[in-house]
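Tokens in:
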């Protein structure tokens, strides 16, 4: 709705009183279903007298209304809040049923938000007490809920913001829509924790790849679809991880997208969360498939600099994650998080544990990793997968050194490859050690260990000293155990068994 200076002033409350819903809807909603503007109210002596709608008081909305009904109720920005910075504003609306002013969102510095809530609540209480009927009278919307009886009994299904299902109407339980069968489900959230270097991002990349490609994930069926990986830290590294899967499996294109940037998922207005939803929706259109997985890497880098141990800050984070789940109902939302050094659980407030549907932990032992489900609302807990990482060469750097990134492989496969590689290296070390001893002991001489090791070192020019010594000692023990070499004295000297005979 556009106005010019020649037009008489109108109040938003006048429009509501007149039931002019078309003009209200035009004002709050564009054809793209986005909030177009909000009336700005500047309190007079911290009061609520100035509800005048004038052209100079338009401002863009920082948060999209959830639906037309909500947009019809958005009406006020409270500015100049006492004890708060100039940028701090409270976004308000009139509640249809109670006539009360409700705080919808806050903008401005986060440290002002608690103060703003207290100040606005104080003034609302004073204002509503002095004029208790003003808001109740002007609302022309639906009447408040009446007691259910006979023909006005609310039916099953949606009833305002509530969904009703009666006991008698519950039949057989419907299977939850799986994303990864038995582990992750659509419309739910999880977190995966491990210590730094514990394989969190590598594992989540593996899951995302299998969902996007439609390949079973280590024995678990997947629901193929779009996987969107929000890499809030080290995007270049994440690009290489995904590149490794493209090289390893030979795919040309699958609906797997990496998005960089550091959204603030503690913002009370959920501004960045809404932008993430827009990105996902646009990608669904581009690829022509529904989103099945949203990955957030990591909680720390999307926490907006707030305190992870504070219940209030973690609750705001959960509030933002709820938006992703509510708006992208076909997807599972996975948050990558750090494990506390001494706790064995996720860092920060326990509110996160209560908000997710399932939680996972990765434990690293040597080169082997174990994924454990350590909490599930209605799933199976326990060991999920033992895995290792296999390097994939992606190219070479300016010095000709290989550039690599890992892919996840089952631990049994990795162990078999490792055993073969170790056996090959050990067999070579034993053969080299034997050849050197044959050369040094020509004529039947015994050979000192220092001389033998010095010559052996020449066969491993690229290995560090500890590795060389370890391989030599293992080779000597193997040759002695096989009866091909004997030793005596201190320091030791070595003699070929054939020479002694």
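Residues out:
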């Amino acid at each position: 709705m556009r106005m010019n200076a020649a037009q008489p002033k109108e109040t938003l409350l006048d429009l509501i009183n007149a039931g002019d819903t078309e003009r209200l809807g035009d004002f709050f909603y564009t054809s793209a279903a986005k909030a177009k503007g909000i009336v700005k109210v500047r309190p007079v002596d911290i009061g609520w007298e100035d509800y005048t709608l004038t052209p100079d008081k338009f401002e863009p909305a920082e948060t999209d209304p959830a639906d037309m009904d909500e947009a019809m109720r958005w009406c006020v920005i409270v500015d100049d809040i006492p004890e708060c910075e100039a940028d701090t504003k409270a976004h308000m609306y009139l509640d249809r049923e109670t006539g009360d002013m409700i705080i919808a969102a806050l903008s401005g510095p986060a440290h002002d938000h608690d103060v703003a809530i207290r100040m606005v609540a104080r003034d609302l209480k004073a204002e509503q007490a002095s004029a208790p009927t003003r808001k109740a009278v002007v609302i022309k919307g639906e009447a408040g809920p009446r007691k259910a009886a006979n023909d006005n009994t609310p039916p099953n299904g949606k009833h305002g913001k509530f969904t009703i299902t009666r006991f008698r109407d519950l039949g057989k339980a419907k299977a939850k829509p799986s994303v990864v069968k038995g582990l992750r489900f659509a419309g739910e959230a999880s977190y995966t924790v491990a210590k730094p270097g514990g394989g969190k991002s590598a594992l989540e990349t593996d899951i995302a790849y299998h969902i996007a490609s439609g390949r079973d994930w280590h024995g678990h069926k997947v629901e193929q679809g779009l996987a969107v990986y929000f890499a809030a830290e080290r995007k270049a590294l994440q690009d290489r991880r995904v590149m490794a899967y493209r090289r390893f499996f030979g795919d040309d294109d699958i609906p797997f997208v990496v998005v960089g940037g550091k959204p603030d998922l503690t913002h009370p207005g959920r501004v960045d969360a809404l932008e993430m939803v827009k990105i996902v929706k646009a990608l669904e259109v581009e690829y022509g498939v529904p989103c099945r997985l949203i990955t957030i890497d990591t909680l720390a880098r999307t926490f907006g600099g707030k305190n992870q141990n504070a219940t209030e800050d973690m609750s705001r984070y959960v509030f933002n994650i709820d938006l992703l789940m509510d708006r992208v109902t076909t997807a599972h939302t996975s948050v990558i998080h750090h494990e506390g050094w001494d706790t064995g659980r996720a860092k920060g407030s326990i509110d996160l544990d209560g908000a997710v549907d399932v939680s996972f932990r990765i434990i690293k032992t040597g080169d082997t990793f174990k994924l454990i489900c350590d909490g599930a609302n209605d799933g199976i807990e326990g060991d999920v997968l033992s895995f290792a990482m296999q390097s994939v060469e992606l190219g070479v750097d300016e010095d000709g050194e290989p550039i690599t990134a890992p892919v996840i492989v089952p631990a049994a496969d990795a162990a078999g490859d490792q055993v073969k590689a170790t056996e090959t290296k050990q067999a070579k070390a034993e053969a080299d050690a034997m050849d050197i001893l044959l050369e040094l002991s020509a004529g039947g001489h015994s050979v000192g260990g220092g001389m033998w090791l010095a010559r052996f070192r020449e066969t491993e020019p690229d290995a560090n000293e500890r590795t060389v010594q370890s391989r030599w000692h293992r080779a000597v023990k193997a040759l002695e155990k096989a009866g091909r070499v004997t030793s005596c004295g201190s320091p030791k000297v070595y003699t070929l068994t054939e020479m002694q005979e």
